[in-house]
Structures are given as structure tokens and as C-alpha cells.
Design goal:
Elements (H helix, E strand, L loop, with lengths): L7 E5 L5 E6 L6 E3 L10 E5 L9 E4 L3 E6 H6 L14 H5 L3 H15 L5 E11 L6 H11 L4 E7 L3 E7 L2 E6 L2 E12 L2 H4 L3 H4 L10 H21 E6 L3 E5 L2 E12 L5 H8 L7 E2 L1 H11 L10 E6 L3 E6 L3 E4 L3 E10 L5 H20 L1
Antiparallel strand pairs: 1-2, 1-8, 2-6, 3-5, 4-5, 4-16, 7-15, 7-19, 8-9, 9-18, 10-11, 10-17, 11-14, 12-14, 13-14, 16-17, 18-19
Helix pairs in contact: 7-8
Amino acid sequence: MLAKMTDFALFREPHATHALRYVQTQGEAQSLPNYDALNNVEGFVFAPFTISDECPLLVIASNRVEKLDATAHISRLPQSGNEVPTEPNNKEKQSISTSYQQCFRSFHQELMQARFAKIVLSRTEDVALTHAADAEQLFWRACQRYPRSFIALVCTRKAGTWLMATPEVLVQNDTQRWHTMALAGTMKLNAEQQQWPDSVWNSDTLPLEWSAKNKEEQRLVARYIGDCLANLAYDIEETRPYTQRAGGLVHLRSDFTFKLKPAYGLGDLVKTLHPTPAICGLPKAEAWQFIIENEPHCRRYYSGFCGPVSANEGTRLYVSLRCMQLSHHKACLYAGGGLLKNSTEEQEWEETRAKMETMLGLMLS
């Protein structure tokens, strides 16, 4: 059920065979004033795209930690699929909405005038529910369908109920070394490609051809992250771009590992990296402000970040992508795409549709 008297986060790491539930048994999730406050926290962090009174930066305390067998829960899922009520408006599915057309032209005009090198335009789509969805069942179905993604179900009194299946790491650490990634560019797989075994995806000679637009988008993100890390870190290593699968989509990805300079902590790193160009744009500050002022919806916790933070267990924060907010009467889906000068309205609309399929597929399967 969606109604919970206790704030919690249920999450499963990529490829893991178990999930963890952090339950805050006393009070509500803590609201933090800014990213600097992350330097000294423990628990599950749930951050919005932009911190505000309506959408605070939250930390769910791990007063109680439950370890759950993912394989066992998945085996108990109904074979007929999840009977979640209705489909989105058919007209909107078939044609580009007027709202999106207007936004695309407004955002693209800024690119043509060279105000931005890249900017991300997102949109929402509502799915009407005839009754409340079983959020935890949707979580386990996401674990089943997307083994390569970070799956999280977050339920708090301040933020509501959110489910996500994201492929993108914001930042992680392993002993003294940290990790982040540049993930950008999107391509939808056809039916045959979706059946390729993992051995194909792990190969250096993947038989997929990326467009110039996708390659340039990934280069912009990688260059930005490299510049950010130069101020905070040392011993920085960067991989060549490669293809990462996420459900029925693939993205271009390059990895960064580094050591953080002694004067800096998690809050400093997050403040520098978030929002990455993959979900915002370049230059960052100007693109961030333009999105806030010109997108017709508030992104809320979509394209924020989330994950566990612990001095002993380490930090694993992910960008909140492929997500939806659940309520008793609807599921609100969020998706976006990176616009460059050569972007087209039709291609970008199709990209958002493909990304929304990640969550929509859980309800219609």
C-alpha cells in the first residue's frame, strides 16, 4: 500500500541478489539545509533536482535495516503481471503534445543563439489509477526486469512515494577511491538486440553504431566532469566511452576514478557535480536556472539523486532517472532528453517515450 506511517527506503544495487530496507522508526526523514550538510550524515539520501521548502533534501535514518532475498520475492510475483489500472491518454502517446512542442522550440532557440552548448528538456505524463498501486510489488518487478539498474522505492511523509530504476551513478566510494561516470546519449534497442546475451554487451566490439549527436553529447558530459574533478580530486583516471545497457535502452558511458583531496567531503563533491550535464545542461548554472523558470512542471525528485551513505559501508549515490511518483489516483512519469543544436523535436519526443516505457512497462506487464 502507499500509505505508510513510517518513512523508509527499499533499494537494490545493480546485479545484487538481495535488497535492503532502511526504516526510520522514530520521527520523519531529516531535512538538510544544503549539500554541505551531506559531509556528516548517515542513512539514505533522497535529493530533489532543486532544494526548496516543498522539496527538501532528505535523509532517512537507518534505525532498522532489513536484508531481503530478491530472488525469493521475485519468484512470488503474480505470473499474470501487475494488474495496475489504466494506460496513459492514447492521443498523447500517438502525437507530440502542444506543451512539449512549445517547450522544445523555446529551449532549442537558446541553443541556436549559443546561450547553451546543451540543455535537458523533461516532461511528465500521468497514468490514471482506478485504485492504489502495490508499490512494493512494482519494486520487485523492477528488480526482475532491470538487473543492471539501481532500483529504489522511497516513501516519506515529506516527499511522497517514488519508484526509480536508474543506470547512472552520481558518486560512489570504495575505501580511499571514488567513482563517478559520464552517461549520455540514448538509443532504443530493437527486439533482436534485446535478446543479445551479456557476453555481447561486455565485448569491446559491440555491433552498434552511435550517431554524431549522441557522441557529442557524451563528450560534453565527460569534459564537464573532468573539469569538475580537477578542482577537488587527484590521481584521476578516465576510461574510453563504451555502451551500457539499461532495460530496452543503451547509453554511452565513460568512468572516472579518483582520490578526493583531504580538504573536501561528500557534500563538496555533490555540490560540484550535481546537476550533471546529463540531466541539466552547459553552462550548468545558467541551464539550471533556465530549466527551473521555463519547464511547465516542477521536476521534484526526478533528476535529483539518492542512495545510502555510511562511514563504514561507503557511499553509493545514483541520479534519480526512470522514475515515477505514485499516489492513490495516479502515477506521474518523468523523462527527459539532452538537446543540442542538431536535435529534432520528433527524435527527442520519441526518446522520452522510450524512457517512460521503463516504468510504464512495470504497470502494464
